[in-house]
Write a structure and sequence with these properties.
By secondary structure, the protein is an alpha/beta fold. Helices cover 38% and strands 12% of the residues. The protein has an eight-stranded parallel beta sheet with strand order 5-4-3-2-1-8-7-6. Belongs to the glycosyl hydrolase 5 (cellulase A) family.
């Protein structure tokens, strides 16, 4: 049984006021970045496990991000990494933060994720499926644990232990507690763990803001996230007008806004059209994908290419593995937004 040391009313009181959130945001500059995983990793496990952690590639690729003026990366963690080797995992997180800090980049860490492959396992990860988007990405914690609260004790240790370790680390921008919790058909089944995760985070109350991003029209999970987040994050993979309409709707909460996933070329979500909207409303912008690699996110969600050829229009990502850029006009748009010379 999980026993909370604070009452629910006390936990609610731990949420930042809108004033505090806006004062924090005013100090962050123009938040611009990408969801980051090195091109040599297929998923969160391969990124952080001891035998596949790749600081050389991380350093090189974050250098490319710095060249665009990017100052934030969103990085996914995994509960199994903490369970397997807590000290080693925290050490590798620290090494990532050191590398990012060298490039003047802060990290937005993600604890849990409901997307893509279920039943994650430690050890050697699969090779990419040819032409398939995110063929090896894994959920955290996965259905077996999500539906069995008797196993949540280790999840509580993971969340609280990680937060306590980095609670006052200014290299961490913020904590994203749960990515798209109602995805993969979970819908309302995600709510108990989603609520618990906010309770665990608010018990620790790190110096950085906590959040979870609304991403669709699922009212119940969105309500939990909006009611408990210090800052409001959201996902929008649609055209610039849709993006602007969503931003206008979220402004009523009076809190800082960060779009923690956007940019899907096939769906008319482009740097050139979305970045001016983000600037107009002072909204942070974190696109999906930096370097094309083992995640195969140049391919669209529902359009695999069995021959493995390069799609005529990349879905995500900015750079090739050799550092060359996919579209020069996109890089120009990003640099204009970040005022990078």
């Amino acid at each position: 049984m999980i026993v909370l040391s604070l009452s629910i009313s006390t936990l609610k009181a731990q949420k930042w006021s809108a004033q505090k959130a806006n004062e924090w945001y005013a100090k962050q500059g123009t938040l611009t970045g990408a969801n980051f995983i090195p091109s040599t990793a297929i998923n969160q496990l391969e990124m952080f496990q001891a035998d596949t952690f790749d600081p050389t590639t991380i350093d090189r690729e974050l250098g490319w991000a710095e060249s665009l003026g990017m100052n934030v990366m969103r990085v996914y963690l995994h509960d199994l990494l903490y369970e397997q080797d807590k000290d080693g995992f925290l050490k590798r997180m620290d090494e990532l933060l050191k590398i990012a800090d060298k490039h003047h980049i802060k990290i937005l860490f993600v604890f849990f994720d409901s997307c893509w492959n279920d039943d994650p396992k430690l050890g050697k990860q699969p090779e990419p499926k040819t032409g398939v988007h995110n063929s090896g990405w894994v959920r955290s914690p996965g259905t077996k644990v999500l539906f069995d609260s008797r196993k949540w004790g280790r999840l509580e240790e993971y969340v609280k232990g990680t937060l306590k370790h980095f609670a006052n680390d200014n290299r961490v921008l913020a904590w994203d507690l749960f990515n798209e919790p109602s995805n993969s058909g979970y819908v309302d089944a995600c709510l108990p763990l989603l609520k618990k995760t906010f309770e665990w985070a608010l018990e620790v109350r790190p110096s950085q803001p906590v959040t979870a991003a609304i991403w669709n029209n699922h009212e119940l999970s969105n309500q939990v996230m909006l009611e408990n987040s210090d800052i409001i994050t959201f996902h929008n993979y649609k055209d610039a007008q849709n993006l602007e309409n969503e931003i206008k709707g979220l402004q009523k909460y009076g809190r800082p806004l960060i779009c923690s996933e956007y940019m899907a070329r096939r769906d008319n979500s482009f740097f050139q059209t979305c970045l001016p909207v983000f600037k107009k409303y002072n909204v942070g912008a974190i696109n999906w994908g930096l370097v094309a690699g083992k995640t195969n996110t140049i391919y669209a969600w529902s359009n695999p290419m069995p021959d493995g050829g390069e799609p005529p229009l990349w879905f995500h990502d900015i750079f090739r593995k050799d550092g060359s850029i996919y579209k020069a006009e996109e890089v120009e748009a990003i640099k204009k937004h970040t005022q990078k010379k």
